[in-house]
Automatic annotation (TrEMBL):
Stated name of the protein: HTH cro/C1-type domain-containing protein
Domain HTH cro/C1-type, first and last residues per copy: 2-53
Matching Gene3D superfamilies: lambda repressor-like DNA-binding domains
Transmembrane regions listed in the UniProt entry: none
InterPro entries: Cro/C1-type_HTH, Lambda_DNA-bd_dom_sf
SUPFAM superfamilies: lambda repressor-like DNA-binding domains
Length: 385
């Protein structure tokens, strides 16, 4: 529909997006899922946002689940208020730390809607703590918490397809990081921005930001925090390079991340990265998928045994990738099994993820006369096929 509104035929759009016309036809007809790189390229060629092509946010699904979270309206208000945002009584520092940990845990455990509900009040309390600070150190500590909270906010709203809000949250994270007592937060913030740039197919800038993050960390001692941030930067770089078809560079990033993960030996909670050996192997599968080898991604991803310390949202995303890989490899039965694995581990994330809908639609188009199983799954998604 967007192509026709733009007055383009398939040939013209394929040329603008730098994809084959056969791929464009397959996606338009629902025979193959549109990859994140494909959707970003087509959106850029059409001059629209990727979430518009995905149909995000999924308002009908949100309505079925109780409507748009009221916390989202409060977040929009807070962002609109800017520097004039109303602050709340902060309470003691220990309470702010505990509440920040709570909203992070809600996101990691696939309860993003609940986390959004708590976030606006937490941000206003943090603003109150900064305004009431009587010393420079207290004020800088307040900005550290605020930067971390805005980073969490960016990931929450990004998950539901509210990309402009995610961008605003990263803007505020960067500003708070500059005023904090923690120089490592700047390296973390640019990694968040690189993620958003992937949805815009801005891979060159994303690559520069990954390198900027690594440069900021280069002279730092090898603490757990620094290692986790370095590893996270390499994983972000691997995904950007894979989508940009720079597979040699992507594999180099994976190799660097794998070496760092081996040093840590477990998933680290430092800077909310959850970086560790398991996360590296998940990204290795994702690089194969984004780099054009879905057969390898499907096999490796299905055989991968993830550590017990992996977060639910990360494991769920892995199974979503495996499902898309199986579809591209032509095995719809295994694809549906992977989707159900994702649903079991992280149902909320799976219900709202655009790639799940792309994958389920492709399975349904191929399997509608063979099985009712995919019909049950698409009904659960609220997806009309």
């Amino acid at each position: 529909m967007a192509r026709k509104v733009a007055g383009l035929n398939q040939q013209a759009l394929a040329q603008r997006a730098n994809y084959s016309i056969s791929m464009l036809r397959a996606v338009e007809q629902g025979r193959e899922p549109g990859s994140p790189a494909f959707v970003a390229a087509v959106a850029r060629a059409l001059g629209i946002e990727a979430e518009e092509l995905y149909g995000q946010p999924y308002r009908e699904t949100l309505d079925d689940d109780g409507g748009i979270p009221p916390g989202l309206t409060e977040l929009r208000t807070l962002f609109a208020e800017g520097r004039y945002a109303a602050a709340l009584e902060p309470g003691v520092t220990e309470e702010i730390e505990a509440d920040l940990a709570k909203v992070r845990d809600l996101r990691h455990s696939d309860r993003a809607r609940q986390a959004i509900e708590l976030t606006p009040v937490l941000l206003r309390r943090m603003a109150g703590a900064i305004r009431q600070a009587s010393t420079d150190s207290a004020r800088e500590r307040g900005y550290r918490y605020l930067a971390q909270a805005y980073g969490n906010t960016a990931q929450l709203v990004y998950r539901f397809g509210w990309i402009p809000l995610a961008t605003q949250a990263v803007d505020r994270m960067e500003m708070a990081a500059e005023r904090s007592d923690d120089p490592l937060l700047a390296a973390h913030a640019v990694q968040h921005r690189a993620l958003i740039l992937m949805s815009c197919a801005s891979y060159d800038t994303g690559t520069r930001l990954v390198q900027h993050s690594l440069d900021l960390l280069e002279s730092r001692p090898d603490s757990e925090e620094v290692l986790a941030l370095r590893g996270s930067a390499h994983l972000r770089g691997a995904m950007i390079d894979a989508r940009a078809c720079e597979l040699d560079r992507a594999r180099e990033h994976i190799a660097e991340a794998r070496a760092i993960g081996a040093r840590l030996g477990r998933s680290s909670a430092a800077y909310d990265t959850n970086f560790g050996p398991g996360n590296v192997e998940i990204h290795d599968v994702a690089v194969s998928l984004e780099g054009g080898d879905p057969g390898r991604a499907a096999r490796d991803g299905s055989e991968l045994r993830l550590p017990d310390d992996m977060r639910a949202n990360r494991v769920g995303h892995h199974w979503q990738d495996v499902a898309r890989a199986w579809v591209l490899a032509g095995d719809h039965a295994n694809a549906l099994r992977a989707l159900n694995n994702a649903r079991r581990v992280a149902p909320q994330q799976t219900r709202y993820h655009p790639q799940v809908r792309e994958t389920a639609r492709a399975i349904a188009m191929a399997e509608r006369r063979k099985s009712d199983s995919i019909a049950h799954f698409t009904n659960w998604l609220g997806l009309k096929v």
